[in-house]
Specification:
Helix content is 74%, strand content 0%. It has helices at 7-27, 33-37, 40-59, 63-86, 92-105, 108-111, 119-137, 153-165, 176-194, 197-217, 222-246, 256-269.
């Protein structure tokens, strides 16, 4: 293996080093008051925000925006890592070493002599290796894994169904889910008629979970589909507001029939 470092990689190493220097300056006794007060717990929310902003930039197919958002995430990761180093909990280098070891260990078809016949074999090997790692560390292993509870619920539902399907705990065809969908809709209607908020919430959750599984069987990520639907609604609503304003009508206060007519007109144009 060629251990030489390309000029491009030297630049990356240099930039990371400089970013760590900036973090040290910000965290120094005479540094920025805000940065000095932060803890991993107080900044963890920003990681999620930055990841969502990166996802938006990718969806918009704007490489310049992706470049900038990646930088924000790099900073937050190093910032959190530095705080743990300050407490002598671990070193950032150890985090990098662990992921290096993990990637090599979980790709034996690349770094060892395991043979695979496509993506399905790679996925199966990955899951088997994860299970073995859990057993060796004394952790309880589940096919469902340890999906973060902070994941958006629809995305988490999608991933749970996806993982259950790996052991064939799944519907064989998407068509089978139509009956299940009708069943859940009927149970929701009954709960609404019954008037129990707790029961309504449970049945609504079951319906949404079934929808997520239907999406998965159709090859659609429900989280992304819903994001696009919300974006479409928002775009049309803004256009409706503009149209109403041009007609001399402002929201709130517009009659329902006027809004409906404007909405239908906007839909025709989009």
């Amino acid at each position: 293996m060629d251990n030489s470092i390309s000029e491009k990689d030297r630049k990356i190493t240099g930039r990371i080093t400089r970013l760590l220097e900036i973090i040290d300056i910000l965290r120094a006794p005479d540094g920025c008051p805000w940065d000095r007060e932060q803890t991993p717990a107080t900044v963890k929310k920003y990681i999620l925000e930055e990841c969502y902003e990166l996802a938006d930039a990718i969806d918009q197919e704007e490489p310049g925006e992706v470049c900038e958002e990646l930088g924000d995430i790099f900073f937050m990761l190093l910032f959190i890592g530095r705080m743990y180093e300050e407490n002598n909990d671990f070193e950032i280098a150890r985090s990098l070493e662990l992921i290096e070891e993990k990637m090599i260990r979980r790709h034996p078809h690349i770094f060892a002599d395991v043979k695979v016949n496509g993506t399905s074999d790679v996925t199966a090997n990955w899951q088997n290796i994860k299970a073995q790692e859990a057993r060796e560390s004394g952790k309880k292993h589940s096919v469902l894994g340890n999906l973060p509870k902070a994941l958006p619920a629809l995305q988490r539902a999608f991933r749970v169904g996806e993982r259950a399907s790996r052991v064939d705990f799944d519907w064989k065809h998407a068509s089978e889910l139509w009956d299940k969908l009708e069943e859940e809709k009927q149970e929701l209607r009954q709960a609404v008629d019954g008037g129990s908020t707790q029961q309504i919430e449970e049945e609504l959750g079951d319906l949404l979970f079934t929808v997520s599984n239907l999406a998965r069987k159709l090859g659609i990520n429900p989280e992304e589909a819903l994001q696009k639907a919300v974006a479409k609604f928002t775009r049309r609503f803004h256009a409706m507001e503009k149209l109403l304003e041009e007609q001399g009508t402002l929201l709130p206060g517009a009659p329902a029939d006027i809004m409906d007519n404007a909405w239908e007109e906007v839909k025709k144009g989009q």
